[in-house]
From TrEMBL:
Gene Ontology BP, a term: uroporphyrinogen III biosynthetic process
Organism: Simiduia agarivorans (strain DSM 21679 / JCM 13881 / BCRC 17597 / SA1)
Reactions catalysed according to its record: hydroxymethylbilane = uroporphyrinogen III + H2O
GO MF annotations, alphabetized: uroporphyrinogen-III synthase activity
Keyword Lyase recorded: yes
Top-level taxon of origin: Bacteria
CDD domains named in the record: HemD
Job description of the protein: Catalyzes cyclization of the linear tetrapyrrole, hydroxymethylbilane, to the macrocyclic uroporphyrinogen III.
EC number: 4.2.1.75
Domain Tetrapyrrole biosynthesis uroporphyrinogen III synthase, first and last residues per copy: 18-248
Family label: Belongs to the uroporphyrinogen-III synthase family.
Protein name according to UniProt: Uroporphyrinogen-III synthase
This protein's record includes keyword Lyase: yes
Record lineage: Bacteria, Pseudomonadati, Pseudomonadota, Gammaproteobacteria, Cellvibrionales
């Protein structure tokens, strides 16, 4: 098995993952196929502003990612120098929870660090079993799954959503992939379904997808693994979640 590894995370979020994977003895190649951009349209920003000004109406604030924390806390800081005391904060994963706590927001619930860090794990929290007549504000990006919002609504909540950022294919993705391909075969890692889609798109544009389908691929969770199977990848290793520890453990299992 190759000891070369593609790290496809957004460049701004790759440092800790790079260090964790390099510590396992991999030669880590930075191949970012996803970038995070804040929304910039005036209509979009006005919609966000309206929800933020009404933040004291919400019983729960749910953050789905570290990106949601970064963008959401910036908006809250602009309009709420003192946050409402009754609002409770939830995070969809351990890293998101840490980001909230570093911003000074107390987290009352998050999935266990050794569990899947996804909507299903968050919805399993006892705090969310019955939300009758409670208002929930979701801090998230554009697009993505609707399962979390749909289920919260089905449990009685009044759910509003803030689309704070968008996930895009970086301008330099093609050149990054071309350079990595020139280095030879490697272990591929992706941290989300969007990253997998962008990776496949970029490889296909360079007529390299078919060859890379035989390379080892490490993904976070069964949902992304199922997507990888539909794309034709043959050697998929599933990490418990997208944390560095879980992905590193999955990488270590490749050599066993």
């Amino acid at each position: 098995m190759s000891r070369r590894l593609w790290l496809t995370r957004p460049a701004a979020q790759a440092a800790e993952s790079r260090a964790a994977f390099a510590a396992l003895g991999f030669e880590v190649l930075d191949v970012p196929v996803l970038a995070i951009e804040p929304v910039t349209g005036e209509a979009e920003r006005q919609a966000i502003r309206t929800r933020i000004l009404d933040f004291d109406r919400y019983h729960w604030a749910v953050f789905v990612s570290q990106n949601a924390v970064r963008e959401g806390v910036a908006w809250l800081s602009d309009y709420w120098p003192q946050l409402p005391l009754h609002t409770r904060y939830l995070a969809i994963g351990a890293a998101t929870g840490r980001a909230l706590e570093q911003a000074g927001l107390p987290v009352v619930g998050r999935p266990a660090i050794d569990s899947a860090m996804n909507s299903e794990a968050l919805l399993a929290l006892p705090e969310l079993a019955d939300l009758t007549d409670q208002a929930v504000l979701l801090f998230r990006g554009e697009g993505g799954r609707t399962h979390l919002a749909d289920t919260l609504s089905a449990r009685g909540a009044r759910v509003d959503q803030l689309a704070l950022y968008r996930r895009v294919l970086p301008d330099q993705a093609a050149s990054s992939v071309a350079g990595a391909l020139a280095a030879g075969d490697a272990v591929l890692t992706v941290h989300s379904g969007e990253s997998l889609d962008n990776l496949c798109q970029t490889l296909a544009n360079q007529q390299a997808l078919e060859a890379c389908l035989t390379w080892p691929l490490v993904v976070p969770g069964e949902r992304v693994a199922a997507l990888a199977e539909t794309r034709g990848f043959r050697h998929i290793t599933v990490a418990v979640n997208a944390s560095d520890n879980a992905m590193a453990e999955a990488l270590q299992s490749l050599g066993r």
